[in-house]
């Protein structure tokens, strides 16, 4: 599972860095999500993606589950999808910060996996 998460995160960071090439700076979002909260959100997203990967094998209507899971994540963190997207674009402007966020996500997921493996 951790290997999949690392691959997904690396692909996301690569894509984000390619999108970051433009010099066009996005304004600071109105509802700025803290770095630590972004870590928590991405951890939840990775856990949901793992669940959805498993459900996809059993459930043909995965789109319904996907929308509900993501809606739950946004509700849990008191944000909207728009808030998340704006903040993601904001953090994409500083790849170093985004790399730090994803490094923390990997650390959190590794700790969760260690707890499960005990």
Structure described in brief:
The protein is an all-alpha fold and 118 residues long. Helix content is 78%, strand content 0%.
Distance between the termini: 16 Å
Write the element-wise H/E pattern from the N-terminal end onward: HHHHH
Number of helices: 5
Low-confidence stretches: none
Overall average pLDDT: 84
Largest sheet: none
Radius of gyration (Å): 15 Å
Structural class category:
mainly alpha
The number of E-state strands comes to 0
Q: How much helicity do the residues have?
A: over 70%
Number of structural domains: 1
Silhouette: globular
Strand content: under 5%
Attribute tags:
118 residues
Please tell me about this protein's structure.
The chain has one domain. It has five helices and no strands. The protein has 118 residues and is mainly α. α2 packs across α5. The protein is globular, with a radius of gyration of 15 Å.
SSE diagram, text form:
Elements: H1 2-19, H2 35-58, H3 62-76, H4 81-92, H5 95-117
Helix pairs in contact: 1-5, 2-3, 2-5
């Amino acid at each position: 599972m951790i290997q999949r998460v690392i691959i997904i995160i690396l692909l996301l960071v690569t894509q984000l860095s390619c999108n970051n090439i433009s010099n066009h700076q996005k304004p600071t979002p109105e509802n700025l999500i803290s770095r630590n909260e972004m870590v928590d959100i991405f951890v939840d997203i990775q856990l949901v993606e793992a669940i959805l990967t498993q459900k996809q094998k059993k459930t043909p209507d995965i789109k319904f589950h996907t929308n509900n899971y993501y809606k739950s994540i946004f509700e849990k963190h008191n944000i909207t999808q728009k808030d998340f997207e704006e903040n993601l674009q904001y953090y994409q402007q500083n790849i170093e910060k985004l790399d730090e966020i994803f490094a923390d996500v990997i650390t959190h997921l590794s700790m969760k996996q260690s707890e499960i493996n005990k």
